[in-house]
Structure formats: structure tokens, C-alpha cells
């Protein structure tokens, strides 16, 4: 649960879909004066500050944590620039794939004496409504206080789990970072199939969305395994059993979900450098 003390101050670099999802939650929970660096306009409540470039960051601003939330393929220039501005920050990267080694190397490129302490985090967009889940990994040498500060930020917008090996962040990315997209696809497909069965589009949309919401909420409340909750819906000889005969074919969902998550993890690995 979020603590009542103010959240650490941050320099949030990149306030797009993921950065903004986290920022909304942080602002609600009360955050020390922070700066958002993004080339697009952002109306921030006082005393927070929006900067379009590194040069716009107030000279006396030293954030507790520098968070990098730009695309991993486009991060090099801004990382190099930040390395010249903040020498020894806690650098919290939410970028998919980019390894601690690669982040550190790029950060030090224009300022070899820079020495960031890198923590990697993989949140997801439900952070926007406080229902996120974030996996974290900290490089060796990160202090307990630095880890606590990162954890507090992400815990304020959902739950957190820490992993013991950096490469497991790729698995987190594939399961929960990208995961909401799999569920949104399911919503799209259920809605479409409902329309094919003759339901009015608005009714199909409502049924699909509320079913996914309700099933998620039940999973969240229940101590039972997902498989047990599935069995509770599945009357012998009934309708669900007929649907699951198709979905649970080894070549259907079991294979597709495994392959999809493996492909996402593989892509994260490709983005490491
Ligand atoms: N979207 C998601 O669900 C998740 C994303 N992530 C990670 O979060 C990161 C951001 O993803 P996402 O939010 O989707 O991306 P977005 O492109 O939506 O957000 C990035 C933002 O940063 C801006 N930006 C990029 N470079 C600069 C710069 N040099 N100076 C100023 N502004 C800049 C972009 O502007 P412009 O668009 O003009 O380039 C954009 O507004 C990625 O690394 C991704 O791997 C992690 C978990 C989930
Ligand atoms: O698709 C991506 O690469 C990012 C990382 C996880 C979710 N979105």
C-alpha cells in the first residue's frame, strides 16, 4: 500500500503512454516537486515543472530519481545529455530490453566520470488507475534506501515484484509489461464474435468488457488457482466445455500464448544494447 509520506522527487524523461500513466498516479499521491521532460506540452500542477529539453530543467533541481521512459531505440542522445547534467543519479529505466550495461555505457559516453546507479523496472499501463504491476531489478551496489524509493514510486500505482536476475526483466516484460495488450485483444475478439452471434454492437462491447473486468476482479479476490476458477464455470456437458475444447487444443491457446510470450521476451533481448 502507498505510504503517506511524499513520493520521491523525479525527473521523468518521456511522458508518453507509460510515463503519463505513472505520473497521473504519482500526482494523486503527493510527490515532492518534480520535473517532466518531454517535447510535448504537459500541464502540470504547481510546484511541478515541465521542461522540453535538458536545458529547460531548473538549474537548482536535483531529483531523487531520474526515470527514463522513452523508446529504447531512441534513448541514446537523451541519455548522453543527462549524463552530462546529473553525474550520480539513481537512474530508473522502464525501457523494454535496454540492459544496465548498455544504459551505463551510454550514460557515461560524454561524461566518463558519471556514475549512475541503475534500477530497471517494467510497469504496465494499468498503473494509470492504480492497478499496475511492476517487476524491478536493481544493479549490485544499489542501497536499500534507493530500492525503497523506486519501490515506493511504483507501489503508489499498483503492486511490485523484485526479480533476482536482470534477464528475468525480459520475462516480466513479456508477461505483464505487454500483457494488457493481450487482454485488450481478447476483448476485441470477444466483442466481434458476439456481434457475429447477432448481438447489437453496444451490447457485445459491454458484455466483453465487463466479463474481462469481472473475471480479473474475481482472480484478484480469490485464493483459488485460475484453473479452479475456470473449472467452476465449466459445467460437464455444458456450453463452456464446448468452447474450451477448441481453445485448449495444444495447438490453440496453450501454444499461441507460449509462443507469443516467448516472442516478446526474445524481442526484449534484441533491444538490450
Ligand atoms: N506503453 C507501454 O505499455 C509500456 C511501455 N514501457 C516502456 O516505456 C517506454 C516509453 O514507452 P511509451 O510511453 O509507450 O512511449 P511514447 O512514445 O508514448 O512516450 C515517450 C515520450 O517521450 C518523448 N520523447 C522521446 N525522446 C525525447 C527527447 N529526447 N526529448 C523530449 N521528449 C522525448 C516522446 O515524444 P515523441 O513521441 O515526439 O518522440 C513521447 O512523448 C519505452 O521504453 C517502453 O519500452 C514499459 C512498459 C509498458
Ligand atoms: O511494446 C513494448 O515494447 C512496450 C514494452 C512493454 C509494453 N510496451
UniProtKB/TrEMBL annotation:
An example of a Gene Ontology BP annotation on this entry? Answer: L-proline biosynthetic process
Keyword annotations for this protein, in alphabetical order, are: Amino-acid biosynthesis, Cytoplasm, NADP, Oxidoreductase, Proline biosynthesis
Q: Which reaction does it catalyse?
A: L-proline + NADP(+) = (S)-1-pyrroline-5-carboxylate + NADPH + 2 H(+); L-proline + NAD(+) = (S)-1-pyrroline-5-carboxylate + NADH + 2 H(+)
Cellular compartment(s): Cytoplasm
Q: Which GO molecular function annotation, any one, does this entry have?
A: pyrroline-5-carboxylate reductase activity
User: InterPro entries under this entry?
Assistant: 6-PGluconate_DH-like_C_sf, NAD(P)-bd_dom_sf, P5C_Rdtase_cat_N, P5CR_dimer, Pyrroline-COOH_reductase
Annotated metabolic or biological route of this protein: Amino-acid biosynthesis; L-proline biosynthesis; L-proline from L-glutamate 5-semialdehyde: step 1/1
Zinc as UniProt keyword: no
Q: What is its EC number?
A: 1.5.1.2
Q: Name one GO cellular component term.
A: cytoplasm
Task: Please indicate if the UniProt record lists Amino-acid biosynthesis as a keyword.
Answer: yes
Residues that bind NADP(+), according to the entry?
69-72
Domain Pyrroline-5-carboxylate reductase catalytic N-terminal, first and last residues per copy? 12-97
What's the family?
Belongs to the pyrroline-5-carboxylate reductase family.
Q: Which PANTHER family match?
A: PYRROLINE-5-CARBOXYLATE REDUCTASE, PYRROLINE-5-CARBOXYLATE REDUCTASE 3
Task of the protein: Catalyzes the reduction of 1-pyrroline-5-carboxylate (PCA) to L-proline.
Descriptive protein name: Pyrroline-5-carboxylate reductase
Give the gene that encodes this protein. proC
